[in-house]
Amino acid sequence: FDRRKLELLPAPLNFEDFVAEIESISALMAEQKGLRFDLERLSDLPKAIEVDATRLRQVIWNLVSNAMKFTKEGGVVMTVSADVEEDFATIIMEVEDTGIGIPEAELDKIFAMYYQVKSGKDNLHAVGTGIGLAVSKQLINMMDGDITVTSEEGFGSTFTVSIHVPIVELEEPVIDAKRDNVHLNIFMVEDIELNVTVAKSLLESLGHSVTVAMTGEEALVNFVPDQYDLALLDIQLPDMTGFDVAKYYREHYDHLPPLVALTANVMKDRREYLENGMDDAISK
Fold it and tell me: Domain end: 166, 191, 220, which one?
C-alpha cells in the first residue's frame, strides 16, 4: 500500500441525493440481513457541497458495511447533520450499531494500518480489514475532518465522521433525450457482496438488467455473449483474475460485448488493462 497515491478530486456533489442513495441502499442491505436501518437527518442539509464523492462514499460504505457485518440482531442507525457558516459546512455523519463492540483497550489501535479487532467467540473481525479504517481516516483528514469512535464491548460501536467542505451551487444537468431510453443487459463479475448490492440496485434503478457471477468459474460457465450488451469484470476474484476471464472470452468467442474492468485501484495505467484484453476500465 502506497500512502502517496491517496489523492482527492473534489467536485460539486448533490448532497441531498448522496444521502438518499446511502439511505436506500443501506436499507436494502439491512433487509437482506434481517436487520433494521434508520437514517435520521438531524438538521437541514446543504443542497450541494464540493467534495470527492467517490472517496466519501467509500468511507461511509466501509463504516455501514462493517456495522451490518458485525451486528447479529438489532440494527444500524445513521445520523446526518450540518453546521453551516457562510460558504462552508461542517457535515457530521454518525454510524451506530448494536454489534459486537470493540474492547476499550483496542480502541486507540483500530485506525492503525492492517490492525484487526477480533471477537472472542466466533473470531469475527470487528472492523473488517484494518486497512479500510486506516485509509478512511487518512482520506477524511484530507477533507479537513476526522473519524472518531466510541464503543462498548458486547453493546455496539459508534463511528463519527466530520468533514469541513465548501457549499456550492449545482449546475442543472443537460439531459440528452436520445440516451434516456437505453436499457442494457449487463453481465457483472464481482465477488464482494456490498459492491454487488450497490452496483446492481444503481444499475437496475436506471432501467438496466444485471446478471451477477461472484467467481471466475461462474463467469466462464454462465456467460453467453449474445445475451449481453456489456460485461463488467472485477480484476481481483477469489479463484482467478478478471484478466484471466477476459482472455478466456477472447479465445472462445468471436463476437463479444465491450469488456470493462472494474478496479478498486486509482487508475494506474489504462494501457495495462487494454493490453490484457479489456476494452476499457473504470474505478469502483
Answer: 166
